[in-house]
Amino acid sequence: MSWLWPVDASAYADHVDLLLGGFTVLIVALSAPVFILMAVFAVKYRRGRVADRRHPVDNSVGLETSWALIPFILLLGFYVWATWLFVDLHRTPADALEIDVVAKQWMWKFQHPGGQREINTLHVPVGTPVTLRMASQDVIHSLFIPALRIKQDVVPGRYTTLSFTADRPGTWHLACAEFCGVDHSVMGGSFVTMTPDDYAAWLRTADTDATLAEAGAALFRSHGCSGCHGPSATVHAPPLEGLYGRPVPLEGGEVVTADAQYIRDSILLPRSQIAAGYPPIMPTFANQLGEEDVLRLVAYIQSLADARPEDRP
Amino acid sequence: MSTTAEPPAETEEERVSYFRSGTSLRSWLLTTDHKRIAILYLLSITFFFFVGGLAAALVRADLMTPAPDLMTNEGYNRAFSLHGIIMVWFFLIPSIPNTFGNFLIPLMIGARDVAFPRLNLLSWYIYMAGGLFALATLVLGGVDTGWTFYTPLSSMYANGSVVLVATAVFVTGFSSILTGLNFIVTIHKLRCPGMTWGRLPLFIWSHYATSIILVLATPVLAITLALIAAERLFGLGVFNPALGGDPLLFQHLFWFYSHPAVYIMVLPALGVISELVAASARKPVFGYEFVAGSSIAIAVIGFLVWGHHMFVSGQSVYASAIFSFLSLVVAVPSGIKVYNWTATLWKGHIALDPPFLFAMGFIGLFVVGGLTGLVLTMLAVDVHVHDTYFVVAHFHYIMVGGTVSAFFGALHFWWPKITGRLYPLAWGRVAALLIFIGFNLTFFPQFLLGYMGMPRRYHVYPPEFQVLNVLSSSGAGVLGAAYLLPFVYLLWSLRNGAPAGPNPWGATGLEWTVASPPPEHNFAEIPEVTRPPYDYEIERHDA
Ligand code: HEM
Ligand SMILES: [Cu+2]
Ligand SMILES: [Cu+2]
User: Fold this and answer.
1) Which ranges carry the Cytochrome oxidase subunit I profile domain (chain B) (predicted)?
2) How many Å lie between the centroid of ligand 2 and the Cα of residue B77?
3) What pTM, to 2 d.p., does this model score?
4) Could you tell me if the ipTM is greater than 0.90?
């Protein structure tokens, strides 16, 4: 019945199906008394029909409390289950394969860590946790992979992430679920899950000149970042080696973690958060760099996470 | 047409009816009689129902095949945006309150009119002005933002007359606020002697709850729309991140209004159903206090659940968990109503007339809509079905299956009161049944489509979704025809129906104590209430 029930490509998807199945049983049980009794009463107590109508009750606190509380308590059980599954979905696995996603009217662009790029098709290995780091170049989009039972909005101005582990190799749908303008309904493509070997082979055939971090390093030089942040800089700017993932004290006294969002904002909205002890002289690059380039720079700075400023060439 | 001879066959009562108290166009357009204003609304919302319905017909026709057929992608987007905007703000929100609420509230509480009759007329003019803006948008090519106006699409990227249509909605909002205000004051101040809060018909309770939401929530919508216009026209950076704004702020503001607004659309319907069930079963409503209190509970808790529209927007996991929990809480008072209606039927004297059939249809569809709302509240399930046809099916079960069925139920129950004429009951039964069947055929397949993974607002879709889409579109054909049917026999009854008399259903309630149609100032003498509501004769004691 391929037109009645969706295909599934992960254990998580099976779990969601099970949750829905169980919940459907509950809501059928909660509504069955209403449907059955309404029909029975309509027949039995039809006007003009003889029936025992003596001693009707029109108020009962006991009944009211039980039909308010019993369904609610049963629902709470499912609430716990569904929320637990949802929290699980939002846990980013530490060793995940990170793939960058940029949405723009009306296409999906993917960048693999090795620098391989693809449009409207996403290849991933099965059995490996994958985390998508997603940015939008214009309006809100939403990456929807029905076979995994997951979606996540892609919001301009902030990174969102989506983590999953696919379990079955195959080719599935990938769609945009948030209305994004004229060609919203054709902003989709394929989601291809492959065995790790096939994925490795695919990575080799997909053409690329540099890894994501290497491409970021090139941008770092060509856009003059190194002029301020590099070893021979004459201005007072913080070194970016060892920055990623560390706490950063800000001018106002606040301390934030230097995650991808922080680095993105440092490049595109430098005035919003000033590192303590430095002059606010960094210019914005909003007019020069698109979200894809910024993601490459983030990958580069992320690759320096374990480096120390002293080791600079 | 100025001087006509007095029609000889009229009885004394009919001659002074609100219908005959003036026949010129002027006497209608400048009336302050709540009953005439109700008729003005009835005509105008019917017009908008057809405009919105036409847009839905285009959408459904195009979805018969996976490929684009009738319209371009742009045209399709404009069709469903228009459909949503017109149906929500120009049909559903004013539907029951502004027609039946206006007509019945003063009659039910024993008053001669609403508290501010001129303000009432002004509400209608404001509504019409908003409607003209909406029609102007249509003539100028429409908008392609959907009825939800998500930013920054609406504020920076969409082409089309966004500011104009935002103005249309902004303006009608004032009509809602004034009507809500008028109802609140009327219910507080104009109850006749003996009409205590505990004796109010449940229709009044639910309109009271609705009015609170109208007054408190609508201003938030007005502000939000004004901010969109400011960003679009002057580049004020509120929602667009490129200007330093936050797109999710828009969603918070919009749903802070729009979730309560769904209760604006359904609470009046719940009030109607309580009246219909009691009159059809000739019994007091079971658990009156609980049914009345649940309306207020819904209105209050309804303000705390807006985040359930944003589970995949990037909102924090903790916020989502809390909004999910509160959404379960708000379902409880709705459940209470349904169980109480069922218990009302027990040991009743049930007449299977059109009002009862519409009420049963309502309860069935409202239950399905409400329970699938609980499915959507389950976080892990919502991640999958958010923004798919599952959601479309869910809200149509409530807003169309529920509210529109209740609207037709109200029309069939109070038509004899409003017009003084009876309509053919058999045709009413046929219409109730056809609407129920057509509705399920249209919208049930959409639940399956949504779980299959068909996103909403899709003009072009993968071929494996076609079977269910064809089913849905065929159902829409049946539903469209079924909606037209009552117009035929109800209009026919205006001329040919038998005179109704004051109380054709043998119902309780002050509106049934005056002539049909009611005289100009309702009550010659303000009545005094001495008995509880729904005081039907039941066999409390052994005979
Ligand atoms: C009487 C009241 C109705 C109301 C208040 C109503 C309301 C709505 C709303 C608010 C939407 C969301 C619009 C959007 O997603 O932009 C919608 C979508 C839709 N409605 Fe209705 N509707 C009504 C009747 C109907 C009928 C009778 C049909 C079909 C015969 C219909 C078919 C649709 C379809 C197909 C969509 C989805 C369009 C899409 O997202 O691609 N509606 N409706
Ligand atoms: Cu889209
Ligand atoms: Cu809601």
Assistant:
1) 28-530
2) 12
3) 0.92
4) yes
